[in-house]
Each structure stands twice: as structure tokens, then as C-alpha cells.
Amino acid sequence: MSKLSETSDVTAWAEAGKKHGAVRVGRMAQGLIGSEILTIAAEIRAQQRAGRRVCNLTVGDFDPKQFPIPERLRAGIVAAYDRGETNYPPSDGLLQLRESVQKLYERELRIRYPIPSILIASGARPILHSAYAAVCDPGDRVVYPLPSWNNNHYTHMVGAQGVTVECAREHRFLPTRAQIEALLPGSRLVCINSPLNPSGTAIDREELRGICVAIVRENTARKARGERPVFLLYDQIYWMLCVGETVHATPTGVVPEMAEYTIYVDGISKAFAATGLRVGWAVGPVDVIERMSAIVGHVGAWAPRAEQAATSELLDDPGAIETYLAGFRAGIADRLTRLYQGLEEMRAEGLPVEALPPMGAIYLTVRIAPFGKHTRDGIQLKRNEDVRRYVLEAAQIGIVPFQAFGCVQDDGWFRLSIGAVGLAEIDAALPRLAHALRQLQ
Ligand code: PLP
User: Fold this and answer.
1) 382 Cα to the center of ligand 1, angstroms
2) Segment 293-300 mean pLDDT
3) Residue 37 pLDDT > 90, yes or no?
4) At residue 113, does pLDDT exceed 80?
5) pTM of the full predicted structure?
6) Average pLDDT over residues 318-335
7) 165 forms bridges with which residues in the sheet?
8) Is residue 292 within 8 Å of 312, Cβ to Cβ?
9) DSSP string of 374-418?
10) How many Å apart are CA 133 and CA 282, to the nearest integer?
11) Between the CA of residue 19 and those of 22, 26, 244, 313, what are the distances in Å?
12) H or E stretch including 188?
């Protein structure tokens, strides 16, 4: 195809900046750190490539062999491509899909929003980023709980100031009204995720109501003073994956006035095991959604047209969703329960482990705290990272410490994710963990 006769090999110049270690990028890019979880996951993949059998409980993703996407979605995408749906979609999403999201929320969450409140993007990440970028000015205060997923990175990207709330085990690692209320004055954004990545626990309806009442009160006072409000970014990407008796609570469901201040983050990535398809959405106040749409549009972070069309068809088919979710949720609940019970048995035996009962998402929160003990090689386990390495080496199980979710304390809490493993792998891994813990002295 090329009409040029010679190739200019520019490799040396392209690599020069990196080789000499000179800092040539701006402060934001320089200070941005990559995903800690992906670093751990890459280490495990390298071990697997080297032939080691590792039970990988690290990534918040799905193995399509364990959890395929709904057939209705797969067939819908193929049909949409066959129809030639390959051009740009509208930058705020196909109207047909925005209407489907509107109907889904009314049908399942019992909240009705107008169409201009709904924005489609290529997954929840661009929605999160555009929400931060739309409401925050540099230096604004963003309140987010620890542990939580990626809020530190988005805060950094918009030059805001992170104010963290340390959440306790007794509150299932979720924020309380008292914690949030104390930080509302002077804050621009509060971020809550339920069911929560990493803990797999869900916020209590009354606690959420308390937080929402406090936000409305704060904003009523700000309105009187002519000040901009504090917004609630409510990431409910896992809401369809509640397990057991858990009932998902929404801010506008508990306090309708919150519609002025709540930005919902949602999408198909987790609900339909469709992380690679890239369809997400925001639902929120029209003025904010319009600005988020402008940001998403300029970045070009819209979802592929064919995937949008197929998602719309799936969301409009409650029967297909129900059938799919029944099997999907059962598969998730089986794995989480099996892990939980296995860990409870270890605890009963006196091994230093503790797990929180699973409530939703694809995660289990586990404390593995053999601190002060020595491995057979004489290494003393002092920090979460020591425990993570020991569990990987001695039990061939990959887990993620809460440090990857912003926590600083080395108190033994880890996230276990079940999206990429089968029951047989879990059954084989549990005795390995028990054995490894028994061997410590
Ligand atoms: N929100 C939470 C809480 C998540 O855990 C994730 C992914 O792990 C996302 C958002 C991002 O979802 P997406 O893959 O649609 O960008």
C-alpha cells in the first residue's frame, strides 16, 4: 500500500526521553499512578505462563468460560453489525438505549427520570471521570471512603483534593452518616459505591437516607447563600448482583429531592459479565449530565453503536434479564458462599482468618492476619504485602490487599474476587490455604 520507498527508523528518538529518565510530561500525568490491582494480576499471569497453577482471586473481571454474557446480548451485537451499525452513535448515546435505561430504572428501581438525565458512554470509567470533571474545580474537596476503587485517581486527574473517610469493619467497610455529614461543609463531591468494590457489602437503606438528608440540608443552606452544591456520585454498577437477602437502596429512592444532587454511575460491565463490551451510563440532574455529555463527546468515549443497540434490546426484555441473572447470581453466590464457609471453618479451627458474609458484587472481604509468625524459610510476616506474597507462594492463591483500595493500615484485610474461577478451583484452593497457615510458626 505504501508509496514511499524508504523506512525511517525513529526508534532511538522515540525511546530517548524514557531512556534518559527526563521528566517531559505535565504534573498531572507525571503524578498519575496505574492500577495497583492490574500490577498484581500481571504478576499472577506471569506465574501462570510459567506453568504454576494459581487460583486467581485478584481481578474484578470475569472469565467468559465461567460467566458468559447473555445470549440475547451476543446475538444482538452480531445482528447489529450485520445490519451495518458501524458509524458514530449520537454523542450522548442512542436514544433507543437511553429510553431503555429510563424504563429499566422505572421498572426495577422505581425511579423515573427524563431522557435528558441519561448519558451513555463506553463503560462506567468515562462516566466517573466526566462526573468528576463536570462538577469539580482544581482544589475542590472530594470526599471518598476507604476502602474504595479508583477515587484517588479521578481526584488526582481533575486536580481536586481528596478527603478520605476510613470505614470500619463494624460498618461493613461502608461510610456512616456521621462520618459523611461532618465533612459536607466545603466539599464539592461525595462518592459512594454500593454494593462496594472491594468489600462485597451493601449500604443500609436507613444509613443512606441519613446521608441524603444531610446532603439536602447542606445544599438548602448553600442555595440560600447562592453557593454551588455538593453532589453525590453514587456508583451502583453492581446493583443487579445483590445476593441473599440484600436489597439495593438508591439515594433518590430514599430521598426524592436527591435527584437534584445525585449522579448515578451504572452499566452492563458487571451486571451482565460484559466488561469488554464497554457500555455504561450516568443518570442525574440535567444540567450536570449535559456538561458530562460534552466532556464524553470531546474525548470520544461513546460506546460502540452495535453494542448500544444490543444493550437496548436486552434491557427491554425483562424475561431475558431475569433468566440470565437467576443463573448468574446463583453462580456468584455459590462461589462466594463456598469461600466464606471454607474460611469460617478455618476460623473455627483457630487459624487467623475472618470473612464478612457476602452481600453482593463478586467480592468477599477476608482478614488473613498471621502477623508475627514465621514461614518455614524464617521470614516473619509483618505486613499485608508479606501475607499476600506468602499466600501466593505457599497456597498458590492470588488476593488483593486493601492497600490497593487506598487503605494504609497493615491489618490483614484483603479482597477476594470470584469472577474468574470455578467451584472446583475454590475447593482445591481452600485446603492449600489452610495448610499454608498451619505451617506458620
Ligand atoms: N465502578 C466500580 C465500583 C468498579 O468496580 C468498576 C470496575 O471494576 C467500575 C466502576 C468500572 O466499570 P467499567 O468496566 O464499566 O468501566
Assistant:
1) 31
2) 97
3) no
4) yes
5) 0.96
6) 97
7) 145
8) no
9) B-TTS-B--SHHHHHHHHHHHH-EE-EEGGGGT----S-EEEEE-
10) 14
11) 8, 18, 53, 50
12) strand 187-193
| pLDDT in the model for residue 35 | 79
Of ligand 1's listed atoms, the one at least distance from the Cα of 280 is 15
**Pocket residues: Cβ below 6 A from ligand 1:** 60, 123-125, 149, 193, 197, 235, 237, 267, 269, 275, 280
Alpha-carbon distance of 81 to 111, in angstroms, equals: 33
Sign of CA dihedral 24, 29, 35, 36: positive
Q: Find where cell 446493583 sits.
A: 239
Model confidence over 116-168: pLDDT tens digits?
A: 999 999 999 999 999 999 999 999 999 999 999 999 999 999 999 999 999 99
- How many angstroms is it from 17 CA to the middle of ligand 1? 33
> In terms of C-beta distances under 8 Å and separation of at least 24 residues, what long-range contacts does 397-401 make, across chains too?
397/54, 397/55, 397/57, 397/429, 397/432, 397/433, 398/40, 398/41, 398/44, 398/54, 398/55, 398/56, 398/57, 398/58, 399/57, 399/58, 399/366, 399/368, 400/36, 400/37, 400/40, 400/57, 400/58, 400/198
Joined together, the cell numbers standing for residue 311 give: 444493550
Nearest to 242 by CA among 309, 174, 325: 325
Helices and strands, counts by H and E, the chain: 16, 13
Q: 248: CA distance to ligand 1 center in Å? A: 17
Ligand 1 centroid from CA 125, angstroms: 6
The helix (run of H) or strand (run of E) holding residue 281 is strand 280-283
Residues 232, 262: contact at Cβ < 8 Å? yes
Residue 315: phi and psi, rounded to 5, are -65, -30
Does residue 36 carry a pLDDT above 90? Answer: no
Query: Taking the CA of residue 277 as centre, how many other CA atoms within 13 Å lie in the half-sphere pointing to its CB?
Result: 27
Query: In the structure grid, which three cell numbers stand for residue 344, read together?
Result: 469460617
Residue nearest to atom 12 of ligand 1 (CA): 124
**How far is residue 261 from each of residues 206, 234, 283, 291, measured CA to CA in Å?**
18, 10, 11, 14
Q: Is the preceding omega at residue 147 within 30 degrees of 0, hence cis?
A: yes
Distance separating alpha carbons of residues 124 and 233, to the nearest angstrom: 12
Q: How do residues 197-244 score in pLDDT, each as one tens digit?
A: 999 999 999 999 999 999 999 999 999 999 999 999 999 999 999 999
The neighbouring-strand residues paired with 76 are none
Cell of 50: 510459567
Residue 256 has what pLDDT? Answer: 98
